Amino acid sequence: MRNLMIALAVAAAQSAAADGCPVTPDHTTALDGLYAEVQRAPNEMIARNFSSQMWELWLEAPDEPSQMMLDEALRAMRVSDYLRAEDRLNTLVSYCPFYPEGYNQRAFVNYLRGDYAAALPDLDQAIALNPRHTGALTGKALTLIALGREDEAQPVLKDAVALNPWLGERVLITEPEGEPL
């Protein structure tokens, strides 16, 4: 199944390259190692280092123009200029429709604005392109919780924590009866 997903992503990325955006860098091997390390981490402090390294890889855009769009959006988000951030991310997603982080960051902008319903399709797209993106998975879980859809959030949150047991959001996992673990 994973090989099929990778093959589809590669084919889709090649299509995107024809429109100007090159293929997203393949960090599968590095991420495999980081997931293994974060799962073996003895504590949260050490695990944070591996999580940070994952974010560095996810935030590596396919080329210089797409990196500039992403960086501009991130700067705009830091100063709460969500309109500017959304504009840059809309441009990024149009230019590189197979780069998961464009969708993930646009979802985050919508989450920060409280537009949770608008965040979900972008989170779904980011996860479709990168099913192991713990940031997108936790973002989706938090968004579903904000929408009052706790039952839908739990499996997504459990998927994220299965990848990275040190995620802070792990405290939101509940027992089947709805009690926190």
Structural account:
Helix 2 (28-40) runs antiparallel to helix 3 (44-58) and helix 6 runs parallel beside helix 8 (134-146). This protein is mostly helical and 181 residues long. The longest helix is centred in the N-terminal third of the chain and has 17 residues, at 2-18. It has 9 helices and no strands. Helices cover 71% and strands 0% of the residues. Mean pLDDT is 90; it is low at 2-18.
Short description:
It is built from 9 helices and no strands.
Helix-strand blueprint:
Blueprint: H1 2-18, H2 28-40, H3 44-58, H4 64-78, H5 82-95, H6 100-112, H7 116-129, H8 134-146, H9 150-163
Helix pairs in contact: 2-3, 4-5, 5-6, 6-7, 6-8, 7-8, 8-9
TPR repeats: 100-133
Pfam family, one: TPR_19
Keywords: Signal, TPR repeat
Rg of Cα set: 16 Å
Low-pLDDT ranges: 2-18
What oligomeric arrangement do these chains adopt? Answer: single chain
The share of residues in helices is over 70%
Number of strands: 0
Quick check: average pLDDT?
A: 90
The biggest sheet, with number of strands, parallel, antiparallel or mixed sense and barrel status, is: none
Class from secondary-structure proportions: mainly alpha
Measured by DSSP, the beta-strand proportion falls in under 5%
Secondary-structure element string = HHHHHHHHH
SS element count, helices = 9
Through-space gap between termini: 31 Å
Signal peptide: 1-18
Protein name: Tetratricopeptide repeat protein
Keywords: Signal, TPR repeat
Pfam families: TPR_19
